[in-house]
Amino acid sequence: MTAMTKIISTEWKLFLREPAMVAFSVFFPTVLMLVLGAIPALRTPDPKFDDLRFVDAYGPTLVVIALAFLGLNRLPTAVASYREKGVLRRFSTTPVHPSRLLVAQVAVNLIAGVVSIGLVLVVGKAVFDIDLPHSPLGFLAACLLGMLSLSALGLLVAAWAPGAASAGGWATVVFMLVMFFGGAYLPRFLMPDFLVRVGEHLPPGVGALQAAWLGTAPSLVHLGILALITLVAGTVAAKSFRWE
């Protein structure tokens, strides 16, 4: 086992010791789908959703919820806490550079995201016979870039925040914006058109997720914006990050 694999394995075990975060980021999207799907009206085709059922149309938003919890609730606080406790500084005195710890945090997010989204797809198909993503490769690309873009923003918050408490507070503001534009608080069909258009281009890319799930391949523009945000936020975070 390589040093990087060991770090990822350790961070994954530490993640599993956070029951609240595991519950919200991994299981909550599936539980929310089951609760909403228990309402008969939401299992009936509706013209508002192009004659789809609400449980089908809400799928991309469930992905947004999972990715937002991981990228903006867990990662910034965890990284800022490591710096506050001197963990990153101690890593810098060893042959293992502390940047590997940050990479491991993103890797844990990716693993947890796969589990969470996989649960939504499997349970949704088994219980409600929801449509699986029409463009599997496009959906995979949208999920990956969505997770990376939110993780980059989370690392940027961790880089700039003076402590773990501040990182949690700042990240919560970004988290709430992501959840709002992703349709978690208010269904997107009730939003003004310009807010829907803005939300489609913001991380984690609900427009790309919705296109891949309900239609065809996501727009290259949507994917390109997510990639650009990942690159810019990740670069700024790397250049401004303080190890102690």
From TrEMBL:
Q: Enumerate the subcellular locations listed in this protein's record, separating them with semicolons.
A: Membrane
What Pfam families does this protein map onto? Answer: ABC2_membrane
Q: Does the keyword Transcription regulation apply?
A: no
- What are the transmembrane regions? 21-42, 62-80, 101-124, 136-160, 167-186, 219-238
| Lineage per the UniProt record | Bacteria, Bacillati, Actinomycetota, Actinomycetes, Pseudonocardiales
* PANTHER family in UniProt: DOXORUBICIN RESISTANCE ABC TRANSPORTER PERMEASE PROTEIN DRRC-RELATED, TRANSPORT PERMEASE PROTEIN
Q: Name one GO cellular component term.
A: membrane
* Keyword annotations from UniProtKB, A to Z: Membrane, Transmembrane, Transmembrane helix
Topology versus the membrane, per the UniProt entry?
Multi-pass membrane protein
InterPro entries xref list: ABC-2_transporter, ABC2_TM
Q: What is the name attached to this protein's record?
A: ABC-type transporter
Residue stretches making up the ABC-2 type transporter transmembrane domain: 7-196
> GO molecular function terms here?
ABC-type transporter activity
Q: Which domain of life is it from?
A: Bacteria
